[in-house]
Amino acid sequence: MQSTLAQGQTYAMIHVRLNQHIAQKRSWLCVGLDPDVEKIPSLFLSYQNPVLEFTRAVVRATAEWAVAYKPNLAFYEVLGLKGVSALETLMHELPKDAITIADAKRADIGNTSRLYAKAFFETWGFDAVTVPPYMGYDSIEPFLAYTNKLTFILCLTSNRGAEDFEEQRMQSGERLYEMVLSKAKEWNRLGNVGVVAGATRPEALQAIRQKVPEMCLLVPGVGAQGGTLTEAVHYSVDAKQASAVINIGRALIYPDGEFESISAFEQAVTKKAQEFVNQMRHAVAQ
C-alpha cells in the first residue's frame, strides 16, 4: 500500500507510519542496538545471555523517546547462536509502534538478494534494511519488491573511508555518492527507498536533503564518530520536520559510570535519551 501526497509524491505506508511517530513523539531518535560484550556494564555478564538482557534494558529505557531501533547484525552474529537467539527474542519485544531497521548492508546478485530480502522482511520481520548500491539495480530490486518496507541505500556514510570512493569525482564532475543519490531517487518510484547520509559531513547532508526533499534519511555518525546532533537534525528533516531518523548508538547505550542495578543503568540511559531528544527539538525549532 502507498499513500499519494498532495504534491504527487507517493510514500510507502511504512514511511507514512514513521512520520506519524515522529509527529506524535516530536522525536527523531533511532537507537543503535549495538551490544558489544566488552563494553556492556559488568552487571549484565552474570546473566545466561548478557546481550539479550542488556538490549532489553536499553529498549525499556528508550521506549518513550525512540521512533526507531537499528540492530547492527554484526554484534549478534559474532556470538553465534546465542547472539542470533538474542536478536530473535528482541524482535518480538521491541515496541510495536517503533520502526525496526536491520543494519545489514547486504545486497548481491538478484537471486541471492531475493533471499536476503525475504530473510530480513519476512523471516525476521524488519520494517527496513540497509543495502549497498554498487552491484546495481538488479541487486536492489528484490528489496524494493516489498512495497511496504523501507530500503535504505548507502549514499554518503559517516566513516573516514567514505573519501576513498564515495567522495571521489567521476568523469562527469559529480561525486560518486551524488550518482548513487540520483539512482536512489530514480528507484524511489513506489516511495519505499531511503538513503543513508552521515552526520559527519553536514554540508553534504544539507545538499542531499535539498536534492531529495521527499525521501527518508537515515543519519548515522552522531556522538562517537563526531557528528553534531544539532546539524544532523537541522539538515536532515524535510519541510514538515519529518522523514529523517538520527541514529545514536554508543553515545546513548553506554552511559558513563558503574551501575549497581539494572534499574540504575536504565535511568542513566533514559536521561541520555531525553537529553538527545530535547536537543533535537531545539534544533528543528531554530
Describe the structure in your own words:
- 43% of the residues lie in helices and 16% in strands.
- It has helices spanning 13-25, 50-62, 74-77, 81-93, 110-123, 137-144, 176-187, 202-211, 229-236, 250-253, 262-285; strands spanning 2-4, 10-12, 29-33, 66-71, 99-102, 128-131, 150-156, 193-197, 216-219, 244-248.
- Helix 2 crosses helix 11 and helix 5 (110-123) runs parallel beside helix 6.
- Residues 4-8 have low confidence and may be disordered.
- The chain has one domain: TIM Barrel.
- The chain is built from 11 helices and 10 strands.
- The radius of gyration is 18 Å and the shape is globular.
- The protein is of the alpha/beta class and 286 residues long.
- Strand 7, helix 7 and strand 8 (193-197) form a beta-alpha-beta unit.
- The protein has an 8-stranded parallel barrel, surrounded by 8 helices.
CATH topology (level 3) name: TIM Barrel
Cα(first) to Cα(last) distance is 35 Å
Low-confidence stretches: 4-8
- Tell me the number of helical segments per DSSP (H or I, 4 or more residues long): 11
Question: What is the compact description of this entry?
Answer:
This protein has eleven helices and ten strands. The protein is an alpha/beta fold and 286 residues long.
